[in-house]
Amino acid sequence: MTKIGNLQLLVCDDCGKVQYPDREICADCLGGTLTRKTIDNGGELLSWTRLHASLEPMFQQALPWLIASVRLSSGPVVVAHWVGAEPTMGQAVQVVMVDDPQDRKVLVALDADADEKAAGQLFVADGGSA
To answer: Which of 88, 52, 54 is nearest to 68 (CA)?
Structure first.
């Protein structure tokens, strides 16, 4: 079963800047204490692309695969898998964390008005249950 969770990223305890990707010190103030926190998952779609080839068997079965670049309302730009209709630049989106089939946390972006449960369908093969 695919688990969908809140968007949790590292936040600097000294200056409050959200860090992405994960790092050991703050990219803004060089503070050394970062804490994983749930942050606002809203953002704006900056760009997207469609992958037509992959060496990963999981992706080969679901090609073409859409990847989105999203500026989160909390600041950082993240790269995420896309779920839903073809995206439009500048549209409002939400980003959630999903466990992939190997139990890795991955980011999934979808339309801001979509039910976030749709993100759980990303890794469901052959019409199985998420």
So the answer is: 88
Backbone angles phi, psi at 107, to 5 degrees: -95, 135
pLDDT tens track for 78-105: 999 999 999 999 999 999 999 888 888 8
- Give the whole-angstrom CA distance, residue 130 versus residue 78: 24
Our count of domains for the chain comes to 1
Q: Which residue from 92, 91, 107, 87 is spatially nearest to 21, judged by alpha carbons? A: 107
pLDDT digits (tens, 9 = 90+) for 22-76: 999 999 999 999 999 999 999 999 999 998 887 877 777 778 889 999 999 999 9
What CATH number is associated with residue 53? 2.40.50.840
List all residues 6 or more positions away from 88 whose beta carbon is below 8 Å from its beta carbon. 45
Is 19 in contact with 27 (CB distance < 8 Å)?
yes
Residue 102 lies in a domain: yes
State the DSSP H helix or E strand holding residue 70, giving kind and residue range, or none if neither: strand 65-72
Q: List the domain range (segments joined by +) for residue 92.
A: 4-121
- 128 domain residue, yes or no: no
